[in-house]
Amino acid sequence: MRLAVASACSWIAISAAHAQQVVAADAQQAAPAAQDAPAAATEPEAKVDNVVTVSGSRISARGFTLPTPTTVLSSEDLAKTAKPNLFNAIAELPALQGSTGRTTSTNSTSSGIQGLSSLSLRGLGPIRTLTLLDGQRVVGANVTGVTDVSQFPQLLVKRVDVVTGGASASYGSDAIGGVVNFVTDKKFEGAKFNVEGGQTTYSDDKNGTFQAAFGKAFMDDRLHVTASVEYGREKGIESPGFGEVGPNGRTWYKNPAYQIRPLSQTNDGKPQYTVIEHAQQYQYAKYGLITSGPLQGTAFGANGQPYQFQYGSNGVPTGTGAVTGCVNPFCIGGDLSGSVGAGTNLAMDLTRQVGYTRVGFDINPDHEIYMTANFGRVKSAFSPNPGAAKNANLTIQCSNPYLPASIVAACASNNITSFQYGTANAIFPENINVHPTREMRRLTLGANGRFPAFGKEWTYDAYVERGINFTDIIVKDMTLNARYNAAIDAVRLADGSIVCRNTVARAAGCVPLNIIGNVPVSAAAWGYVAPENGPQQHTRQQQDVGSFNINGEVFDTWAGPVALATGAEWRRESYRVNGDPYGNGIFPDSPNTAQYPADPILNSTVGNNWYAGNYHNASGTYNVREAYAELNLPVLKSATWGEANINVADRHTKYSTSGHVESWKLGANWKTGIDGLRLRAVTSKDVRAPNLSELYAAAVVVNNVVQYQGNTVTIQQRTVGNTRLRPEIARNNIFGVVLDRPSWAPGFSASVDYFDIKVNGVISSLSAQQEVDLCVAGNQEICGAMSLGNPIPTNNYVTVQAFNLASLHSKGYDLEASYRLNLKDWNLPGRFTVRGLLTRNISFLTDPGVVGTIPSEGAGNNLGNTPRWKGLFSQSWDTDKYSLTLSERWISSGKYSNEYIECQTNCPVSTVIHPTIYNNHMKGAFYVDLGGSWKFSDKATAFFKIDNIGNVDPAAAPQANLSFGINPALYDVIGRVYRVGLRYNF
Description:
- This protein is mainly beta.
- The chain has a domain at about 690-725 and about 765-800.
- About 5% of the residues lie in helices and about 45% in strands.
- It has eleven helices and 52 strands.
- The protein has a 22-stranded antiparallel β-barrel. Strands 2-1-7-9-10-8 form a six-stranded mixed sheet. The chain has a four-stranded mixed sheet with strand order 37-38-42-41, with helices on one face.
- A hairpin with a 5-residue loop joins strand 29 and strand 30.
- The longest helix has 9 residues, at about 405-415.
- It comes from Duganella radicis.
- Keywords: Cell outer membrane, Membrane, Receptor, Signal, Transmembrane, Transmembrane beta strand, Transport.
């Protein structure tokens, strides 16, 4: 992928011949928006020379050089990636770690982030990365406040600025990790289309994209209208169902898991953890397994016929629930037909529909008013798992009429009346399937322009915005726990009919369900345990913004102009979420009682009746008032010592929930007297305010027990949001060295930047027991969230909520380099460009701040988001007619966990904090991509792209259970992908 690196006022994407012409493109069109990043000059009538506006700063001034590192992707760079969604191109940047897309969270029903394309810098999470559209905030597509890039008008994006450093002083809350700003072409004229399609080498994940954009000026170029429409469909990769079988011929899935010995047995010198393949969870089988007692090991097949289950590891059932030769809950090998790990979709079926328009009117040459309207609908669908596994937690009565006679006789001969049972529930006619839909409606009204003041020309930008996002999550083919339990407990009446044993359930419509063997489920039984109206969540999220910014040069000094940017903003965030009555709890005034009728065996107060997907009602609102000032001070201009400037910013913010907080920035940039050498440094205080979900999480009440003063205490566990949360406070430090096109290598640019980010008061949730332990240890804030030791047991409670207890500390460095060679010097057409970006994570330390825990090191933990090294490289040959680009993506090898102690023999005794493991190595990955284009007319360009040419398999990601078994946050789980397309410009 062709990448352009913006280092202060030098951008690799711009050729040396145009380096002196770098100006803010928007500054030459009516009036500049203070937040736009620099681009090449396009209009010679610009009134201000060498004005630069960078997304990491609000300053726009002659000769301004930004101390914060910024990477810029031009529209040409993005086009070369040929991705159906720009999110995927941007997420490949090394500094982007922990982003969420359609291959992540596919094993989740209730997380709420399924199908959400959100960007994360430095592995700090999307909630600590501020994503902007034309320098403006966008309404969140999730109650955590993160935006969905899939809802943006992608064809009109002319540049994406990635600011890899704290920018809260300039842009406000959430910019702890940095800023990603999508800059659109506001003055586009003409028409252009983009059509592309593709599929994987396995003939799945077929995808197609159509995009069109139009722009035209009217009224002597005073009125400008731009519009775009987009439709894209990526059909996803469906699960193969049960067993150790990857979808559509993917043979790499081998049921990876941790085999974990009991802690008490680790005094024998052997490791506690062993990474295994072909893991068999022996607590259930595909169509049912007796898991304890004298009949343990009896499985059921066609028509409920019993047979002896084949355990892996040559295991033999003990009758107690254990299996010799196996470590609970896994054997190795054996009958794997009931495994569910491979049943998760590898990629969601995702559909994008986006419409966008901008109408700008020049009142006069110095003032413009404008309106933008953005509509984006993103629909996704996936299956988190097949069946609904019951891990040896069912009790089947020997009188169950669905049992074969041989099992009934065996019960009698062994003098038992029931047995423990587990099943993968492979008889279910459909897998659980989740359907999230996010629909954004966003309208902005604004004005920008320029005016004289203090003998200088100043600019302003003001806008108001209303954004509304509707999120609907609909889950289908989900079972109700109480109904399932009632349905499987069947009895035969005197007349020979089979009914549910529970008379209350029977009166309410219970239909018996046969889970003994591979017997088709009747439509009536399925309709009872999995009603058509499954779990549902409906969320309305609204953002209102009013913003005003001015920018200009205060006066000139011998070293250059002193520039000032200042402004104020008001913002209001609110949401309301409604869950279905079965998940939330049924109340007399519920509007959904027709679709979700009352059922006496369901919990009508607490809810939580579904196997998964129990959504609850919640609502909340907060508002923000803030003002900022940013100043650029030139301090040096010398032929010998070079040029230097200091950049300072200060922002004061008042939240209606947590009060006042300040953020600031102090940076310096020195273009030394040494040819091409520049030094930059910045330190900043950045903030992230608690989001709507953390403040106003839905209340959920369940029964639980905790240990308190040596006693087991039964409590009500009340899970709620915490309106007393304070903003997270971060300290960002960056120091960089830049070599920018020296005279001895005019085509070469490189930079190295060291970063150190410490976040205190990180908002994190605790368990009820952790809160009790912290209270006993003396934390009075947490003691206020509970009441224990009451003589009336029902008065004992613990309020489980988030607190500002944890901390994060990330250290590392970024390396970027580019070399451009004009091939005309070699009597060849075009130019050849080599580029590389690398991020090295030295440390990513997480301290939970909880009694009994220690800080954990995440750098190099390849089950997480922050590998030691992440790199992106490209080699591109470009001519006026065609181009060819080879690119490489690299993730270094790492460990399953840095807290594990690797050993094979003579191991120390394992501990909860530092378990021992036989092998703690997780391989990395190296992917090669190839793309090219051919311009066969002045208007039409055909292109192709092959991602992951080597079809490299993802590394196995073992878990403590048979869940996903891969890490899509780091690894390519799709495989080789082919895409072709056509771009046409009128």
